[in-house]
Design brief:
Elements lengths: L1 H7 L3 E5 L4 E7 L4 E4 L1 H4 L4 E6 L2 E12 L4 E5 L22 E6 L7 E14 L2 E6 L11 E4 L4 E8 L7 E5 H12 L6 E3 L6 E3 L28 H12 L4 H4 L5 E6 L2 E8 L4 E10 L6 H13 L3 E6 L2 E9 L5 H26 L8
Parallel strand pairs: 5-13
Antiparallel strand pairs: 1-2, 1-4, 2-3, 3-6, 4-5, 5-6, 7-8, 7-10, 8-9, 9-12, 10-11, 11-12, 13-14, 15-16, 16-17, 17-19, 18-19
């Protein structure tokens, strides 16, 4: 099973939108990324990232709110591992399975369990019930068997349900892929009323061409536009040279890089706080006294910034209240944070034995 899990590290995709983060996985032969509809809901484009490519925007090409299924356009010209689907007759109660996920900001996770039921019904949809723990952000990741085949898409859990997880069976996925491929790449949605696919090229307006039910095509989804303080923060990041659509990591949260430093920016509207945390590197496993002494000395020199340690993470932080924040003040403060972070991580690693943090 360990070999199977290692194989999927090259298949898992991290997904982020202005509203949420989640997981997806490649189906290389079809050029698609599979995920849940609720992960990418109300977005035409989402940010994706994997060990094969840097963070980038990609198009949502199919949504099915009824089965909570979505397809994204996969990047081209990259070598991807091939994975297979498991057909339902190959899986049964008691079969060992693994749930895999890798949301933004969290490490790759794989939890093992067994199938409890093959026919848990919700809204006339049959789900696979299992006891593999599904962590926050695992939505859209694959459920696999001990042969490394995809048996389902991790979809939901019961709150306080003692590891009760539910996954959409793979048959819905490969049957829908076949129907979607008939449109030759044209974006589509599944009509919730008649369960037929409606393609953009059909120009059906707001109604299904098959049954007349009201629908929303992908091209009709409103493009996300921030307002208030988040808009000001995004204007600042743009001024500093960043593509804000790629930086978004859920509500009022952004993630970016300056050299080797990884920086998270968050706005807490309730408290009126804007926080920038630059994750520099990790404490070494031994001989840490010199590095602690350096951090304490450095904190006396820094103006408006604070060096701290959380677990093994060494973090350089900026905190400012929104009532004091505008483009001019923010530009000076964040430019200073970014530059000092990019300098300090090298000093900590090269002179004090700190360790680089693995990116993936």
């Amino acid at each position: 099973m360990k070999q199977v899990i290692e194989q999927y590290k090259g298949v898992i995709v991290q997904i982020a939108t202005p509203y949420s983060t989640g997981t997806g996985f490649f189906i290389a032969k079809h050029g698609l990324i599979i995920t849940n509809e609720h992960v990418i809901r109300n977005n035409r484009q989402v940010v994706i990232y994997s060990k094969h490519f840097k963070k980038q925007l990609t198009e949502v090409v199919f949504i099915d709110p009824h089965h909570d299924l979505a397809f994204l356009k996969a990047p081209t010209q990259i070598e991807l591992p091939e994975i297979d689907f498991c057909y339902e007759e190959q899986l049964g109660e008691g079969s060992p399975i693994v749930a895999i996920g890798h949301p933004f900001g969290l490490k790759f996770s794989a939890t093992q369990g067994i199938v409890s039921s093959m026919n848990y019904m919700v809204s006339e949809i049959s789900y696979i019930q299992h006891d593999a723990a599904l962590n926050p952000g695992n939505s859209g990741g694959p459920l696999i068997n001990d042969q490394g085949q995809v048996v389902g898409v991790n979809t939901f859990v019961f709150k306080n349900g003692e590891n009760l997880g539910f996954s959409l069976p793979a048959k819905y996925v490969y049957e829908t892929i076949d129907k979607f491929k008939e449109g030759k790449g044209d974006p589509a949605i599944l009509c919730d009323a008649c369960e037929n696919l409606v393609f953009e090229k059909d120009k059906s307006g707001k109604y299904c061409i098959h049954c007349g039910a009201k629908i929303t095509l992908l091209s009709q989804i409103e493009v996300f536009e921030p307002a208030g303080m988040p808009k000001t923060i995004e204007e600042l990041l743009t001024k500093l040279g960043y593509e804000v659509a790629v930086c978004r990591r859920g509500p009022n949260s952004w993630e970016l890089e300056k050299g080797s430093a990884k920086i998270k920016v968050a706005y807490f509207e309730k408290n009126g706080l804007i926080i920038g945390d630059a994750f520099l590197c990790l404490l070494p496993p031994k001989d840490i006294q010199p590095i602690y002494e350096y951090i304490l000395r450095k904190n006396f020199e820094l103006e408006g910034l604070t060096l701290s340690v959380k677990g093994r993470d060494i973090i350089l932080s900026l905190l400012i209240y929104d009532r004091y924040f505008n483009i001019e003040t923010g530009h000076t403060l964040f430019k200073n944070l970014f530059q000092i972070a990019d300098d300090l991580d090298n000093i900590l690693v090269e002179e004090y034995g700190a360790e680089w943090k693995e990116e993936y």
